[in-house]
Amino acid sequence: MGHHGWQGNPPETEDEARRRIVEAATACLDRAGLAKTSLSDVAAEAGVTRQTVYRYFPGLKDILRAVALAGVEEFAGRMERHLAAFGTAAEAAVESVVFAVRTLPGEPHMGLLLQAGEADFFTDGVISPLAFSYGARILRNLPVDWAAAGIATDEELRGLAEVLMRLFLSFLQYPSTPPLTDDELRALVRRWIGPALRG
Fold this sequence. Notes:
This protein is mainly α. 64% of the residues lie in helices and 0% in strands.
């Protein structure tokens, strides 16, 4: 492919090149943090020039987006494991909101978009059809009798995922004043979402 550098091991495909740049950015961010990571740092970590990085990403914010998206699968797995402890549809729905509101801002990679002032991109990602499908997959995998809660189809489960994701996004972007404790947030969501999930 005519790549220079790459620490003597050029990628075989464009996708591999992008993945390796994202991995290099992740390493830089983990080591130095967002404020001290530049595009030059990422290029040096990957063993390429800045120009090579620009071939795959227009700028650092685009790399941050890719790093954040790479963290989605791992986050979804942790959320699913957490929610597996809740056996009813209402409990699982309530806890999904509490988990997301409390966990996402501290996520080392997904939270980067909020830290970098990319809240619009973060929002677009959370309320995308792909995100709703992820959410529905998490809910579907839980030990919950969704049919007993009145959710009979995949489309309805996806609709529930959309409502829950829009809800936690609202709490993330527009926190209550004063801030709600976990129990207060739990009680609020349970009061208004719970009745819809009792069949």
